[in-house]
Amino acid sequence: MELYERIVEAIRQGAYPPGSTLPSEPKLAADLGVSRPALREALILLQEDGVITVRRGVGRTVNDRPARRGFERLQPVESLLGADGSKVRPLVRIIEEPTDLVMQHLPVPASCDIWFWESVVDVDGVPSCLVEEWSVHDEALAAVDARLPGALASAEGQPNTMLHVLSDLDPYLPLSGTSSLTATVLGRRRGEVFDRSPDTPVVLITQVVSIERTPLIAAKYVLPSGAPSIPVRQSR
């Protein structure tokens, strides 16, 4: 998978432009400094995901629209839904005490104050995702990186998600995430946000974002039926 990502990144950076033919397998393996069996496995996955097309007598051609990176890559949900057409609309930006649900995911004491952000991501003007995010308390944020409390406080009124703020603060922060997916329904309150029936089916994604195994953010992403798809790559 690491080799897969290296090749995709090279395509995105223009080393192998769309429509071009990849070098021969021996040359590509030498250029990348990998074994041919490892390269062959990565090329099979690239073909399965539609990044390249293999034609007899032509070779491996880079497709015009390489597959987008999906939910297996930690990035803000507004980017996953399409950075060009998506817009974050802040609903709530408050400091509150953590709920029991939040304390299941974040190492915070019950008496502390934490940020809670609620936002809607509109895609091409249509409400497509409800985002609910909680951070650890300021002391815990500062213990990881002294810039984090100020970054969230200064971004309070900006049309961004918490993960977007952290990613923009430093693209090299060693962030990682774990996520779970559940099928449920909107419910009354969330239905009012989307102006849809409480019985509307949704996919609920619960995500915990950590830095060096220290949880920083817990988030819930509510995607009702009809929302734009988020690609999820599977591998053997």
UniProtKB/TrEMBL annotation:
Any single GO molecular-function term of the entry would be:
DNA binding
Where's the HTH gntR-type domain?
1-65
Q: Which domain of life is it from?
A: Bacteria
The protein's UniProt keywords, in alphabetical order, are: DNA-binding, Transcription, Transcription regulation
Record's Pfam families? Answer: GntR (PF00392)
**PROSITE patterns attached to this UniProt entry:** HTH_GNTR
Q: Which SMART domains match?
A: HTH_GNTR (SM00345)
Q: Which GO terms describe its biological process?
A: negative regulation of DNA-templated transcription
Q: Where are the transmembrane segments?
A: none
What PANTHER family does the entry give? GNTR-FAMILY TRANSCRIPTIONAL REGULATOR (PTHR44846:SF17), MANNOSYL-D-GLYCERATE TRANSPORT/METABOLISM SYSTEM REPRESSOR MNGR-RELATED (PTHR44846)
Q: What is this protein called?
A: GntR family transcriptional regulator
Q: What is the lineage of its organism?
A: Bacteria, Bacillati, Actinomycetota, Actinomycetes, Pseudonocardiales
